[in-house]
Amino acid sequence: MKALVKERDEPGLRLMDVPEPQVGPGEVKIRVLRTGICGTDLHIRKFDDWARHTLKPPLIVGHEFSGHVVEVAPDVEDISPGDLVSGEGHLVCGKCRNCMAGRRHLCRNTIGLGVHRDGAFAEYVTLPASNVWVHRVPIHPDVAAIFDPFGNAVHTALSFPLVGEDVLITGAGPIGLMAAAVATHVGARHVVITDVSEERLDLARKLGVTLALNVSTSPITEGMHRLHLREGFDVGLEMSGNPAALRDMIANMTHGGKIAMLGLPAEEFAVDWATVVTSMITIKGVYGREMYETWYNMSVLMEKGLDLSPVITDRFPYHDFDAAFDTAASGRTGKVILDWSPTTTDRSA
């Protein structure tokens, strides 16, 4: 089969012929249809410090995908060949304190699909059945392929009640855009999103946010003035990992405000903890998805009409992966999808 492989300890990826994976006990084999390019994949392609210390090449990369089940192990129930599925990319141990208590997203021994074991940028992938999410209602494979990052957005956005609240989102990358769509859909009063990319802010406007603010020219206080907000934002969703963004968010929260922080900083930075204390601000770190409450939330949001299609801006056949990765790395687009469907394979043969 064809697969995108990090073959050596060096920048770049290679499209290679590799053996198809075999189904082990408790596993499911999936014919991949679509994959989404994640920031993690960009780090792996670049082979930066994080990738050098994390990966052990050769490795098939990728963890955002959708596909059809083609084979299940004899001991697997409730999943059948032909099912359209997505996958939870965090494989947990099942034995630590958090796993045993049902808090699997907090497992200290998590293994990452496409990071610690062969991933989904391939024609076929295998996963434990417990990590396979079957789509029981109709959904386009493009959207099903981004359920992993959509889960990050939902986990972050639903960390605190949003109904009737004023919400500030810093960072209009794909996950920030999806979080904005969720906040709007579930009943936030005002949803303000900030970035320095006009292309991404335009995408946010298409998703129905109250205000998309370019903070390179307009401070958050200007947005508050335009919306007649006098006491600050009730909920903050920090999606950028940018030190200035978090500091601006803290400075513009109401007393008792709550911040969910998904953006991952590249290095340590100073925070105005005096304001956090005196304004009694709650800051919650968010990573991945709650297994599997977030997945239920995602499916229900889709059933109730949430439209993520504007977030997907670019589609490429898998053999054009270099162009797809360059597009994703530009910082000016929404989600970039690679098409691995059989017709695509035929065209590239």
UniProtKB/TrEMBL annotation:
SUPFAM superfamilies: GroES-like, NAD(P)-binding Rossmann-fold domains. Keywords: Cytoplasm, Metal-binding, NAD, Oxidoreductase, Zinc. GO terms for cellular component: cytoplasm. It holds the Pfam family ADH_zinc_N. Its cofactor is Zn(2+). Residues 8-338 form the Enoyl reductase (ER) domain. Zn(2+) 2 binds at residues 93, 96, 99, 107. GO terms for biological process: L-threonine catabolic process to glycine. The record marks 148 as: Important for catalytic activity for the proton relay mechanism but does not participate directly in the coordination of zinc atom. Zn(2+) 1 binds at residues 38, 63-64. Its EC number is 1.1.1.103. Belongs to the zinc-containing alcohol dehydrogenase family. This is L-threonine 3-dehydrogenase. It comes from Nonomuraea mesophila.
